[in-house]
Amino acid sequence: MDHPSQHSSSFYPLSPIPYPLSPIPYPPSTIHLFPMRYIEPHGHMVSRTTDDYEKLALSGCEAICEPAFWAGFDRSSAAGFYDYFRQLTEYEPKRAAKYGIKHYSWLCINPKEADDPGFAREVMSIIPQFLDCPTVLGIGEIGLNKNTRNELAIFEEHVQLALDRDLPILIHTPHLEDKLKGTRLILDSLASFSKLDRSKIIIDHVEEHTISHVLDAGYWAGMTLYPESKCSPHRAIDMLEIYGSERLWMNSACDWGHSDPLAVPRCALEMKKRQHSAESIEQIIYQNPRKFLSQSPRFI
Ligand SMILES: [Zn+2]
Known about the structure:
The protein is α/β, with parallel strands linked by helices. It has helices at about 50-60, 80-95, 115-125, 150-165, 180-190, 210-215, 235-245, 265-275, 280-295, and strands spanning about 40, 60-65, 100-105, 135-145, 170, 200-205, 220-225, 250. Helix 2 (about 80-95) crosses helix 3 (about 115-125) and helix 8 runs antiparallel to helix 9 (about 280-295).
């Protein structure tokens, strides 16, 4: 209610209040960061609880993308993958929808189990029947685990499958001491595909010693925020400040191990503390993943 009688000079000072009284702690912005919206471009939700879906929704997550991965154990038959692909394409989108989150997936046989090429090809023969599912974005996460010849051969067969179907590709790079060598092997292999559109490929889990190799070659790069390995928020933000945000995204890669499904919004908060504007934060946690993922017409 408006009370005209209170609009007298006795209630309001005649001169403007010298506001702000202290320096603005964060850069001025045309958008508000909190509550924010973001996309989790790499999360293994089959191994997370419904409580995690609720936390993601409360944190502003609008969409989750789930690449096919190693389940923590080797499957005993290709039929195990058939069920897994059904879980990714039928069950998980429904579970996410209960919390207002869109769920998308990427399909492949993961690099670890790809070291058995006979088994890997049997699994790959199942994949095409799922590629027309309305929430499947592309092929991933393919890549290397121990940098073996078998892994590389199956990696290249997946790349060819993506090329034949004009699908984007999500690539996993090996952990720790194998990472630089594996990243180089992957880049060399990709370079042998002359028809590849590099803007449709993201190479994930980059670190300080691999990020420039990926970006300089024209690919997108993913930074994974993991509590014990991969990147801390501070290291990811350092890389962002050095390399810019043009072809970068951040993800939690949350799975069955020690990982944090809220790693992306936590990193956004850390960016805010380090004086990044709301616009630049939204760029990395929402606009960039949307730009890359929208290369699949299924991502909406
Ligand atoms: Zn993953």
